């Protein structure tokens, strides 16, 4: 299993569980008219293409049937949205409601931003998705809130990545990516931000 696959396997597994429950479809989002929105944008590098952004909403008022150490796992809802090109620029943007409302009182918890790369290596073209997770809200109980420093309204994440070739579970070659000169981390802290702009840059393909 590749690093990026292992990084998101727990998140996507939870999403699959939610999608399989009848209750998920009944507890839809219904944002209040005045609900603030989080703007998310990606700067697309030449040679790459934009993929839909994925938003993960959680509810402390609706519970899944998955039991964890502290009780039942909070319900999870996944929403995808296409990012639209801003004029003729290389910036693509969409928005998500922070307060999803509805019977479950959904709250936006984290967002995944994704780009797809196709790079040539030894006469063949290999593709792969670069994915990063941004935490929007801490999953703390009301009695356990910790004050945080006020964040600038716009959070800009500029990262360089090195691509490498790996194989998936079907033994097919695919691209994976690691951050250059940085220890891996599971996600970026975007708590308190009103807008996120992700600017990935992938260096030349290094080969196996």
Can you tell me about this structure?
The structure is a single chain. The chain is mainly β and 208 residues long. 11% of the residues lie in helices and 52% in strands. It contains two helices and 13 strands, in the order ααβββββββββββββ. It has helices at residues 3-19, 22-26, and strands at 37-43, 48-50, 53-68, 71-81, 84-85, 91-97, 99-101, 106-121, 124-135, 154-167, 173-179, 188-189, 195-202. Strands 2, 3, 4, 7, 8, 9 and 12 form a seven-stranded mixed sheet that branches. A hairpin with a 5-residue loop joins strand 5 and strand 6 (91-97). The longest helix has 17 residues, at 3-19. The radius of gyration is 18 Å and the shape is globular.
């Amino acid at each position: 299993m590749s690093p990026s696959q292992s990084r998101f396997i727990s998140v996507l597994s939870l999403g699959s569980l939610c999608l399989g429950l009848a209750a998920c479809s009944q507890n839809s989002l219904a944002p209040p008219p005045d609900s603030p929105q989080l703007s998310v944008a990606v700067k697309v590098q030449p040679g790459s293409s934009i993929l839909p952004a994925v938003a993960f909403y959680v509810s402390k008022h609706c519970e899944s049937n998955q039991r964890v150490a502290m009780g039942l796992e909070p319900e999870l809802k996944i929403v995808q949205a296409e990012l639209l090109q801003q004029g003729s620029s290389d910036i693509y943007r969409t928005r998500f409601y922070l307060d999803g409302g509805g019977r479950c009182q959904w709250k936006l918890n984290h967002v995944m931003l994704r780009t797809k790369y196709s790079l040539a290596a030894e006469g063949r073209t290999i593709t792969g998705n670069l994915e990063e997770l941004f935490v929007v809200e801490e999953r703390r109980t009301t009695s356990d809130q910790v004050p945080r420093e006020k964040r600038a309204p716009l959070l800009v994440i500029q990262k360089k990545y090195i691509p490498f070739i790996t194989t998936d579970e079907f033994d097919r070659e695919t691209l994976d990516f690691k951050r250059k000169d940085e220890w891996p981390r599971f996600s970026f802290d975007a708590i308190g931000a009103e807008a996120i702009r992700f600017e990935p840059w992938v260096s030349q393909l290094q080969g196996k």
